[in-house]
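ok so heres the complex, two chains, lmk if somethin looks off
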Amino acid sequence: MTVDTAPLRILLSEAGYRFVDPPILSDATVFLEVAGEDLRRRLYLTSGPDGRELGLRPEFTIPVCLHHLASGDAHRVADYAYIGPVFRHRAGASGEFHQAGVESFGRTDRATADGDVLALAIDAANLYGVANPDVRIGDSLLFSAVIDALGIAPGWKRRLSRAFGDPARLAAAVERVSGGTTAGAPAHAGFLAALDGTDHAAAHRIVEDLLSIAGIRSVGGRTAGEIADRFLEQSSLAAGGGLDARARAAIERFLAIEGRPDVALAALRSFAAEETLDIAGVLDGFEKRSEGLARRGIDFSRLHFSSGFGRRLDYYSGFVFEIHDPDGIAGQPVIGGGRYDRLLPALGARTSVPAVGFSLWLDRVKVTS
Amino acid sequence: MTDAPLDAPLILAVPSKGRLQENANAFFARAGLPVTQSGSERSYRGRIAGLPDVEIAYLSASEITRELAAGTVHLGVTGRDLVEEEVTDFGQRLELVLPLGFGHADVVVAVPEGWIDVATMADLDDVAADFRPRHGRWLTVATKYVNLTRRFFHEHGIADYRIVESLGATEGAPASGAADLIVDITTTGSTLSANALKVLTDGVILRSEAHLVASLPANWSGAARGALRTILDRIEAEAAGRSLREVRADVSDAEGAALVAADRFGATTPFGTSKGPLTLHCPAGKVYQCAEWLRTGAGARTVTVSRLDMLFSATSPLTAHLLGRLDAYTG
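and the predicted structre for the whole thing:
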């Protein structure tokens, strides 16, 4: 199968993106460090003569980031485009396929940059015959702002944020931190009850002392202090110190909000007002981005916002989107994109760098010639 | 796979050492398939008496798994853990013909006992996610079951970890600092407790035991298929004999009693009900209830129960199923 990429090259170049061609074979460690062990089963791995683990690039974003970091100041404004093969183990499909896309770094006018990239992605999908795309958008900043404004304890916030983007997992996490399932606690129930009412610092010392008195030989790489921390966190859950009913109801109400961006925004604003949550800052950003999209003539009836839509990779930091072809395969977006301000720091930049981009699956578009 | 000579023998791979070999030999002997090592004790080839179309290859259990997947042996005795670990598409390439009742072991996730805050995989997920921000490195798991670990952790949504491949004495890794926790095999749990490790309550990845496994991509010549029929026929006869008891009783209404026995105890009447005392084949676990009912409910004065060494049936579901898969297999 060959897909004509000439019009796409013209589109991306004219939008001001400069084409780069990062190496196909590179140090595998960087992909694994960023994405974790789970990526390993999809990577094509080999080793260099010095025993270093090498891999075929499974995507372009990290290689383009590395190129950006190696060629100048991480914070400079730069817009890159790419087209080329990527490699992943895929059951029942070829391990080699092509992707195209853009990465835009350094623009501090984030809401506008988000809109620019989404508009360009819609144009790119159009080139491949997706005339009426189904565009799904989400923004994890809203979720973070809501749980911040609810004053949820840091331990629970961490758990909820981590599950964000996977509805089933998030529902389970909400259940857990509401004290709905206190698995594990009964084993130490008596001890936990005895600690109840002790102030946190004292309780912490007691648990640490107990671990050392018990002569615990092996704790892996964890310290007695962090074990004590989590143990006491569980004790507070068991004692009813988890999410209160109001916070839980507010989270569930928030997660049910969806629809066209303008409709969703109105719903979010009344949600914030009725729950008296100060999330005006992120809502203004959301509004600004929507306005930008409207100015570019993007039809809002094509856009579907879901407050629970997000990606569970650590480096995504807000706005995300997927473009589906209504005539394509369900569950396989033609384009995926979003904001990932935390990726460049993970790869060596000193501080967070604004970054947004998308990638188009050339093996999922119709062959148009 | 049509280039196999019609008389190419069936190759049966058997573990070459240890308890697994003893158990496998005992199993084949019970099934009337006595395995003899050819030549010296250290030879890696053998035979089954009376079956000229079968060759025995002595290999290590993990070699057996790989050779089955590659199709260089037809049948083999190996652990389910090795099959699932080493052959990612084992469902397509291999047929787990029969569990053999030995070599039981669990593949488990075990963490240091000192982690009093961790009892479940969900707890571990928490710890894993916090680990990198706290320590500047990933949580590490020592294991030789790389694929099983990855699959299981993925099912539990745990992404923040790295695997450290371990080729022996995995259980010592947390104490030595080589890794934070382990995924390993355990039979009694005593090695784990000796190393101050505990199994997570939902941390059993797989309950494994030795299986007779067939390779679908192997060259199944006419001779090999013939030998397969004989081997499975005897194995099935032995397995059926092991699980059933013959019950005989002098009931007056044999037909009526047989119907009730079938309904309540799953007993069958292999020789019909027309003449002589009623003969039933009853699942071993239901024998006492059955014998009780035959006397109190069906008026029998005497009930005898005997073990069956072997039970041969006209039909062989195992063979029919496996031959069907061989015919359907296209590589």
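quick notes: Chain A touches chain B through 38 residues (CB under 8 Å). thats all i got rn
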